[in-house]
Amino acid sequence: MTEQQMWAGVRERVAAVGAHPQSAEVFGAHGHGFRLEEPLTAAEPADLEAKIGIRLPEDYRQFLLTVGAGGAGPAYGVFPLRRTGAGWRWEGDGADLTDLSRLAEPFPVHGPDAAAVRALLDERPEEEDFDGPDGLEEFDARMEAWDERWAELMWNPDRTVGAVVICHRGCALREWLVLSGPERGRIWADHRVDEDGTDLVPRLDASGEPLTFARWYLDWLEAAERLVLVGDAGD
């Protein structure tokens, strides 16, 4: 099956789920409403690729050309890809984390040093340790300084070069699509907002295999169809 054939009829399937009275039961449906952007024209992906310096993963490229430039999808939907007066950009909650100028750089498989993360977590100030009339003020100052160090370690822009934020799941939990490097074409989940030392991790299917964009999207659609059209809650 070619990448183009993989997406045949998917736009219609999404519309069928969205038209069902029970479609609101699908998680995130109120965010995307099962609406899809119009597909890109045949020339537009190449225009984007010339700007970012790398070809998009083929399954995502064909999704943009066949299904839509974003909209209905996992969680609160696939971030729309739009061309504005300022150029191409992905739009959505957290899309600004994507560095469009560094998408051709290989995405780093490994995050910050685990020992450094643990050491910094051990140094995190605790409010109950600050007593006296100036305790709260001192705690706030220490916490602000700690937050700066945490952001430098966990949210350094170097961590997510070569990838684009493609979706959000609420509470600042996001999904990235890797465009460059050994993980090219795969989805990674971003749990850094939890501030417990959890980094970005690859999304895996039920058998433990890495999720490509196509598998990520089609698994969502199949689960939505089971829930809404068949009435089987499934996974």
TrEMBL record:
Pfam families assigned to the protein according to its UniProt record, in alphabetical order: SMI1_KNR4 (PF09346)
Source superkingdom: Bacteria
The Knr4/Smi1-like domain, residue ranges: 39-223
Signal sequence interval, chain numbering: none
InterPro entries: Knr4/Smi1-like_dom (IPR018958), Knr4/Smi1-like_sf (IPR037883)
Protein name: Knr4/Smi1-like domain-containing protein
Lineage: Bacteria, Bacillati, Actinomycetota, Actinomycetes, Kitasatosporales
